[in-house]
Design brief:
By secondary structure, this protein is an alpha+beta fold. It has 16 helices and 19 strands. Strands 12, 13, 14, 15, 16, 17, 18 and 19 form an 8-stranded antiparallel beta sheet that branches. The protein is globular and about 70 Å long. Bound molecules: flavin-adenine dinucleotide.
Length: 466
C-alpha cells in the first residue's frame, strides 16, 4: 500500500507533538538530512520533513501518528552511517534523536551508564574516563557518531578484538516499538534465560524494528597500562597473516588494525605529516593492555617477536595519539582523493582473512582499480575502498566495480563470511542481502519484521524489502 504524503494536516500534528520549532520542511534546511556519509549523489533523498525528538513519549506519539496516517519514520542519529540507513528512501519523516543527548547516570560502584541515544560516543568515553572508568565501544567515527546509531548498527571499531562490538557493551535498552509503545528490553544482569532475547534482536536492526530512546551500558575500570605497537611490513600479505599467529599464541590485543602503503601515503598527504616507514611499509597497529609495566613489556616482546618472524621489518612503540589519528582519518583522506568511492565492509573468519586479502589484491589487479585498503584485521573485517579517479569514465568504472564486487561476494560466502562486518546493510546493500542470504533465513527476518511492524512504518526498504 502506498504511503501517505506528509500533508499539512500531518505536519500540523507533528508540530503539536514535537513543537513547531522541531519540525523542518524547508528544503534547504533539510538538505543535511538527505544523506549519510555515503557521498554518492545517487543515494541522496530529501525527506518530506525532519523532526527532532526530545523525549521517548514524543517518539512514541510520532510512531503512533505514522501508523494512523501510514507514513514512513526513519530514525536518525548523527548521520555518519555508511549504508544509506538513515535516509528517507521511501519518503516520509526523518526523526532525529540527536537532541536526546544527555548522560543520565554514571554509576561507579555498579559500573554502568544510562544514556540517551544522541550522546556522542567520544563524549561518553571521555566523561567516564574522567571518573576512572572505561566504555569499550570505539568506532573510528567516535567523535561524530552517537550511541543510538552505534546500537542500531551494532557498530564495531577498534577494540572489538578484546571487548566485542557495541551489542556486547549493552545491558538494556528502552525502545519505541513500531506500533508506538515504549518497552524496556534486556536488564542489568550478568546472565538471564528468560524468553526471547528481544534487546539483542533490536540491536543491529538498523532502525527497522524499534527506535532506541535510552540505553544502559556496561562500564569497566579504565585500563592503567597500555601500549601501541607499530609493525611495518614490506609485504602486505605478511602483515595480514600475522593476525592468526598472534591469536594462536594465546595473546589478545585490544586492537589489531591494518593500513596498506597507498593508504598510509594518502593519510600523510591529507594530514601533511610524515609517517614512519611510509616509503614502502604496510602497517599493523597493535594495541595491548597489561596488568603492570612488566606484563605489558612481556606481551610487547612476544608480539614483537611474532611480527618479526612473520616478516615485519621493524616493530616500534608508536605514539598513541599520532598513530590513531592516522588510522582514524584514512577514510577522510580517501574522500579527499575522490568523492565517489565504492566502500566494502566484508568480513570473514579471522583464519580465512589471508585468503580474502589475496583475493582482494588479485581482483584489484584484474580490474585495474585504484584502491585504499584498511582493516580491522583482528576481526577479519576488511574495508576495501575503490576510488573513481578523475580520469575514469563513471559508467565504465561502475561496471568494473560491479563485476569486482560480484566476484568478491561469492568468495566471501564460500569462506563463511558476510557482506558487512559493521556498517550494516541499510539501503545500499539490500539487493546483495537478498541475493546472498539463505532464503529461509531471509524469510524468518521478513516474518519478524511483518509481525512487529504490520504497517511497515519503521525505516521501510532497509536491509530487505518485505
Ligand atoms: C570516518 C568514518 C569512520 C567510521 N568508522 C566506523 C567504525 O570503525 N566502526 C563502525 O562500526 N562504523 C564506522 N563508521 C560508520 C558509522 O559511524 C556507524 O555505523 C555509526 O554507528 C552510525 O552512528 P550514527 O549515529 O551516525 O547513525 P546514523 O547514520 O544516523 O544511522 C545509522 C542507522 O541506525 C539507525 N538509527 C540511528 N539512531 C537510531 C536509534 N536511536 N534507534 C533506532 N535506529 C537508529 C538509522 O535508521 C540507520 O539505519 C564510520 C563512519 C565514518 C564516516
Amino acid at each position: 500500500m502506498a504511503y501517505t504524503k506528509l500533508n499539512s494536516e500531518i505536519i500540523a500534528k507533528l508540530k503539536a507533538i514535537l513543537g513547531p520549532e522541531n519540525v523542518l520542511t524547508d528544503e534547504e534546511k533539510m538538505q543535511p538530512y538527505a544523506h549519510d556519509e555515503v557521498p554518492d549523489p545517487n543515494y541522496q533523498r530529501l525527506p518530506e520533513a525532519v523532526g527532532f525528538a526530545h523525549t521517548a513519549q514524543q517518539v512514541a506519539a510520532v510512531v503512533r501518528l505514522a501508523n494512523e496516517f501510514h507514513f514512513p519514520v526513519v530514525p536518525r542519529g548523527t548521520g555518519t552511517g555508511l549504508a544509506v540507513g538513515a535516509v528517507a528512501t521511501s519518503g516520509g519523516l526523518v526523526l532525529s534523536l540527536e537532541k536526546m543527548n544527555k548522560i543520565l547516570e554514571i554509576n561507579k560502584e555498579a559500573m554502568y551508564a544510562v544514556v540517551e541515544p544522541g550522546v556522542l560516543t567520544s563524549v561518553l568515553q571521555k566523561t567516564v574516563e574522567e571518573q576512572g572508568l572505561f566504555y569499550a565501544g570505539d568506532p573510528c567515527s567516535g567523535d561524530s557518531c552517537c550511541i543510538g546509531g552505534n546500537i542500531a548498527t551494532n557498530a564495531g571499531g577498534n577494540r572489538a578484538v578484546k571487548y566485542g562490538t557495541t551489542r556486547h557493551q549493552v545491558y538494556a535498552i528502552e525502545v519505541v516499538n513500531p506500533t508506538g509503545n515504549i518497552v524496556n528490553l534486556g536488564a542489568r544482569l550478568r546472565k538471564q534465560s528468560t524468553g526471547y532475547c528481544m534487546d539483542q534482536l533490536i540491536m543491529g536492526s538498523e532502525g527497522t524494528l524499534g527506535i532506541i530512546t535510552k540505553a544502559t551500558l556496561k562500564l569497566l575500570p579504565k585500563p592503567q597500562y597500555s601500549m601501541d605497537l607499530l609493525a611495518i611490513y614490506p609485504d602486505p600479505t605478511d602483515a595480514i597473516a600475522t593476525v592468526g599467529k598472534i591469536a594462536m599464541a594465546g595473546l589478545v590485543p585490544t586492537c589489531i588494525e591494518y593500513m596498506d602503503n597507498v593508504t598510509i601515503k594518502s593519510v600523510e598527504k591529507y594530514l601533511d605529516m610524515e609517517l614512519q616507514g611510509s616509503a614502502n611499509g604496510n602497517y599493523l597497529i597493535i594495541e595491548i593492555e597489561g596488568d603492570d609495566e612488566d606484563d605489558l613489556d612481556e606481551k610487547a616482546e612476544a608480539i614483537g617477536d611474532i611480527c618479526t618472524e612473520a616478516g615485519a621489518d621493524d616493530v616500534l612503540v608508536a605514539e598513541h595519539d599520532r598513530i590513531w589519528r592516522a588510522r582514524k582519518v584514512y577514510s577522510e583522506a580517501a574522500r579527499a582523493e575522490s568523492v565517489v568511492i565504492a566502500k566494502e565492509d566484508v568480513v570473514v573468519p579471522v583464519e580465512k582473512e589471508p585468503l580474502l586479502f589475496k583475493k582482494i589484491l588479485d581482483l584489484a589487479a584484474k580490474y585495474q582499480v585504484v584502491t585504499r585498503i584498511a582493516a580491522h584485521a583482528g576481526d577479519g573485517n576488511i574495508h576495501l575502498n575503490v576510488l573513481k579517479m578523475a580520469e575514469d569514465d563513471y559508467e565504465e568504472w561502475e561496471k568494473k566495480v560491479g563485476q569486482l564486487q560480484r566476484e568478491l561476494y561469492a568468495v566471501i560466502y564460500q569462506l563463511g563470511g558476510r557482506l558487512s562486518g559493521e556498517h550494516g546493510i541499510g539501503y545500499k546493500r539490500k539487493h546483495l542481502m537478498e541475493e546472498f542470504t539463505d532464503p529461509a533465513e531471509l524469510e524468518m527476518m521478513r516474518a519478524i519484521k511483518k509481525a512487529l511492524d504490520p504497517n511497515n512504518i519503521l525505516n521501510p526498504g532497509k536491509i530487505f524489502d518485505v
